[in-house]
Design a protein that fits this description.
The protein is of the alpha+beta class. It has helices at residues 24-31, 46-58, 114-127, 144-152, 175-181, and strands spanning 3-7, 11-17, 62-69, 72-80, 97-104, 134-137, 156-163, 166-174. It is built from five helices and eight strands; from the N terminus they run ββααβββαβαββα. The protein has an eight-stranded mixed β-sheet with strand order 1-2-3-4-5-6-8-7, with helices on both faces. Helix 3 links the parallel strand 5 and strand 6 (134-137).
């Protein structure tokens, strides 16, 4: 395991390095689900999902992780260097910036607070690296649910940016803002 965190209410969350081939069928179910529309892979087959995550695994500035809840696959997290991937040339990158994507698996029975626990875990993991000064995200401008979630864990909106595949809302979160927003949820 790369990282573990225990949520007081929901139990253990953990991250492990994603295996593009072994995890492809599982990820395919997640990224093609209607709730994952903003992931932009609705029409992907299993081979394309595996190919995309092999590409990420081979990239020097991008990696992917499978998130576990109580030992079972439950979410996907990606970490990237925004100066080289996703946002290269689209914003003023700073030393210590880390880009992040996350996706919760579709749930048969929704669990109140689960998505917030996932983003809190992912953010705590990113900030566990002392070199990380800010986390940078670029969700679709239409994804109002994730904008509210980002605000809840300390993100500040920088503004809209145009990307080839979408209009995005660039937002950043410092370590200090994250800890202030999640006081009691994560160790400082």
């Amino acid at each position: 395991m790369r990282y573990r965190r225990v949520d007081d209410r929901l139990g253990e969350f953990a991250l492990r390095t994603l295996d593009p081939d072994a995890d492809a069928a599982l990820l395919h179910r997640w990224v093609t689900h209607p709730k994952a529309a903003f992931w932009l892979m609705a029409d992907a087959d299993v081979a394309r999902v595996a190919q995309e995550y092999r590409r990420i695994a081979a990239h020097p500035h991008h990696d992917a992780f499978l998130g576990l809840h109580e030992g079972r696959p439950a979410f996907l997290a990606e970490r990237y260097d925004p100066a080289h991937v996703e946002l290269a040339g689209r914003y003023d990158a700073a030393v210590g910036d880390v880009g992040m994507h996350f996706l919760c698996a579709p749930a048969e029975v929704p669990v109140h607070g689960f998505t917030r626990a996932v983003i809190t875990t992912v953010m705590a993991w990113l900030f566990a690296d002392p070199a990380t000064r800010r986390v940078v995200v670029e969700p679709d401008v239409r994804n109002t649910a994730v904008h509210a979630l980002n605000a809840a864990v300390g993100f500040t909106v920088v503004g809209p940016i145009r990307k080839p595949e979408k209009d995005a809302l660039l937002s950043v979160c410092t370590r200090e803002k994250f800890h202030a927003a999640t006081r009691g949820d994560v160790p400082a």
